[in-house]
Amino acid sequence: MARPEVVVGWLLGADLRDPELLAAYELARERVRELLAEALPEFEWKSPYAERRVHLPRGGLDPVGLLEMGVDEKLHRRWDFAIVIVPNELIPRHRPYALGLSSRALEVAVLSTSRLSTGERLVEEITALALHFLGHLFGLEHAGAGPMRPVLEPGDLVPEPYRPGEIAQIRAYLKRVVITRLEEESERWNAVSFYLETLRQDPGSVFRQVLEHAPWRLPLYLGRFTAAAAVSTVYLVITSDAWALAASLPPAGIVGFTLVALLFSTFFLFHGQDLGRLGHERTWREQLARTRIVLFLTLGLGMLSLWALVFALTLAAGAALPRSLLLQWAGRDAVLPFAGFAAALGVVAAAMGGNLEEEAEIKAELFIDEED
Ligand SMILES: [Zn+2]
Q1: How far is the centre of ligand 1, averaged over its atoms, from the C-alpha of 49 (Å)?
Q2: How far is the CA of 14 from the centre of ligand 1 (A)?
Q3: Which of 130, 257, 276, 334 is 20 to 30 A distant from 316 in Cα terms?
């Protein structure tokens, strides 16, 4: 029986002409493939190379753009994993600088060689960096030793084989992801049944991935997004007509409105951010479908968190305003329905406001799970 293929494609993301650097990339690519083949000989390891010379080879680059470039190429060329390599600095998110980062959702890692050494040492450092981030893509966490040791500076980068426990974990991961891909049989399915089937196969891991994104933090790191909700709410709180309107709605109406608002804003963000259109392939890929499900649920729970935040703040505002005034505006005690109504409108306002401004931030937060 033929061994199952695992394709780790390398993509040069900048217009690099330096022959020495290019040779080092080439050697590292081959070295990584050899190390993987030694560690996991039951798979047929391939590491094709491609170029997209769209960036100048200097200056800082936005990692989200590079991740998207990697996904495009990965889908187009039917790679399983992609490594995007650039000589540029990466614009870091949580650290003073970043040597690389990875997105498990997209199965893409980005490596920067801007701070690495030269000569033979460079090949070693790229190899070690690639093994580290591939490890993250294969589901490994940081460890005290071996390739998954946290990378603090380039000097730490020494190519070492994965440790036995890690190899077992990678093997299990690859078996699940690569071998059981639904691709071949999926074309006769329609979209909905494919998504349902993907979710049904492994709901536990889908929800774990959603929780890893900590969707309740969405309102906190997306300042403008939350500000849009706050502005609309403040405006509503001091508008007597809004109180009268909320008081006149039946409770079921407010619940229904809230559900519609949550769904609308999630769909709006999901499509507005292009999150649903990762890759333009016609065939369904299980991993990509999973990614979409995870992102959609994460955004949905993020919207729900925002709703809860605005709801709580509006209740507090209702308690702070003079009761007699509110009774006059609403005609009855209507703080609870008003808070629900205002929170639902706030969520819609946030989706519209967030959509214009914070595309890169939403993507970065949802996609990048490791930065070293
Ligand atoms: Zn790491």
Answers
A1: 24
A2: 24
A3: 257
